[in-house]
């Protein structure tokens, strides 16, 4: 990437995982009466693998924090998710689980600290879509990040 170029496009080859709600888990310790509370994501380990795949693909594509004002730089994002077709699912569009907004949330959080300091810096979604995977477009996501003029 040159200094004039502020746009990156990269492909993630992993199964997209949505970042759902947080839930509380109580764990009882060995001693009676002791409990520890954990706040965890619904998807747990699978979400971690997806986020790591997004982060690794972004780094490989040369995505990095802006040198000037990394906490106030605005960004635009486009994402197309490619999901597996379930057996027997004949609908033209992937309308079953994995809400588009929750899939997007996982990508934005994965890119925090790599493309931007905080995902609140994303001020525009140019295109966000969920499509069936195919031989030409395997399971994963195509992500475009553009740094907007401040």
Would you give an account of this structure?
The chain has 150 residues and is of the alpha+beta class. It has a single domain, classed as 60s Ribosomal Protein L30, Chain: A. Helix content is 19%, strand content 32%. The protein is built from 2 helices and 6 strands; from the N terminus they run βββαβαββ. The chain has helices spanning 44-60, 100-110; strands at 7-12, 22-28, 35-41, 75-83, 122-132, 140-147. A 4-stranded mixed β-sheet has the order 1-6-4-5, with helices on one face. β2 (22-28) and β3 form a beta hairpin. α1 (44-60) packs across α2. The protein is globular, with a radius of gyration of 18 Å. The two termini are 19 Å apart. 23% of the residues are buried. Mean pLDDT is 86; it is low at 1-5.
Write the layout of secondary structure elements.
Layout: E1 7-12, E2 22-28, E3 35-41, H1 44-60, E4 75-83, H2 100-110, E5 122-132, E6 140-147
Helix pairs in contact: 1-2
Query: Would you state the CATH class?
Result: Alpha Beta
Oligomer: single chain
CATH superfamily: Holliday junction resolvase RusA
Distance between the termini: 19 Å
The radius of gyration computed from the alpha-carbon positions, rounded to a whole number of angstroms, is 18 Å
Outline of this structure?
The chain has helices spanning 44-60, 100-110; strands at 7-12, 22-28, 35-41, 75-83, 122-132, 140-147. The chain is α+β, with helices and mostly antiparallel strands and 150 residues long.
């Amino acid at each position: 990437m040159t200094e004039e170029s502020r746009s990156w496009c990269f492909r993630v080859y992993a199964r997209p995982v949505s970042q759902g709600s947080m839930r509380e888990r109580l764990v009882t310790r060995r001693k009676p009466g002791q409990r520890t509370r954990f706040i965890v994501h619904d998807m747990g380990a699978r979400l971690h693998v997806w986020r790591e795949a997004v982060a690794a693909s972004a780094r490989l594509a040369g995505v990095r924090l802006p040198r000037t004002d990394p906490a106030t730089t605005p960004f635009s994002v486009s994402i197309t998710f490619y999901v597996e077709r379930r057996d027997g699912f004949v609908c033209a569009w992937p309308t079953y689980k994995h809400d588009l907004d929750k899939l997007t949330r996982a990508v934005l959080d994965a890119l925090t600290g790599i493309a931007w300091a905080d995902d609140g810096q994303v001020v525009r979604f140019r295109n966000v879509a969920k499509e069936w995977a195919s031989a030409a477009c395997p399971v994963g996501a195509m992500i475009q990040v553009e740094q907007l003029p401040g």
